[in-house]
Specification:
The protein is an all-alpha fold and 128 residues long. The chain contains four helices and no strands.
Length: 128
Amino acid sequence: MIRRVTGVVGVLLMGVGAALLPDAGDLTGVLLWLGGAALLHDLLIAPLVLAAGWLLVRGRARGPVRGALLTAGALTAVALPVLLRPGKPANSSVLPLDYPRDWLLALAGVVVGTAMVALLRARRGRRQ
């Protein structure tokens, strides 16, 4: 049931994105960014995540570690333009938040969530 709900929400959000796409000023730039993100994921992030999960972890924690690495990679790919931007913008309202700090907090949340899932799986394994 939850997979269907998640799928429907995902399709609806893709519809919102497709509806907003014509309003984007630089359609070519948006399409290049989307294509670059897909290539970055498929050619770099996914293989690295699979290799790291295979090399680092054995047993029940492999899935959560791969999920955490994939999530961290996606967060980093999305945050890279802001993280690599040198200096402060001329208009302080363009980037008003502390994005490097927020990116690190998001990664910390991924680590904490992964540790909780791994601990729950370990406990469940001991009980059985």
